[in-house]
Amino acid sequence: MIAARTALVTPTGTAPNPPPQAPPGINELANELIGWLKWGVLAVGITGILVCAGMIIIGRRHRGGLAQEGLLGSLWVLGGLTLASLAAVLVSAFAGAVTQ
């Protein structure tokens, strides 16, 4: 048991911390999937902003609730787009990953 523990510790007394590495053959598939997801978020974000703008325009006269929902919805859409645009930075910061 003690021998197994000491095998994981370097001579300086710290545990090894290798950088993230994709399994063979998975890197291209992962990049393609991430690209598709980015495109999907972009398409949904544009649609969301346009729908919210329409709600604000239609709700301007005599439908204040609809305009208010459009304004609040646009804030949620912008928040989601901000989070999506920062996804790689946030994951790298929390995981300690080194980006290419």
Features:
single chain, 100 residues, mainly alpha, elongated
Q: Major sheet, described briefly?
A: none
Beta content comes to under 5%
* Oligomeric state of the chains in view: single chain
Elements, N to C (H/E): HHHH
How many extended strands?
Answer: 0
Query: What structural class is derived from the secondary structure elements?
Result: mainly alpha
Mean pLDDT: 84
The total count of helices amounts to 4
Helix content: 55-70%
Q: Rg from C-alpha positions? A: 23 Å
Q: How far apart are the first and last residues' alpha carbons, in Å?
A: 38 Å
Form type: elongated
Unreliable stretches covering 5 or more consecutive residues: none
Please outline what is shown here:
By secondary structure, the chain is mostly helical. Helix content is 69%, strand content 0%.
Give a written overview of the molecule:
The chain has 100 residues and is mostly helical. The chain has a domain at 27-93. 69% of the residues lie in helices and 0% in strands. It contains four helices and no strands. It is elongated.
Write the layout of secondary structure elements.
Layout (H helix, E strand, L loop, with lengths): L1 H6 L19 H32 L5 H22 L1 H9 L5
Helix pairs in contact: 2-3
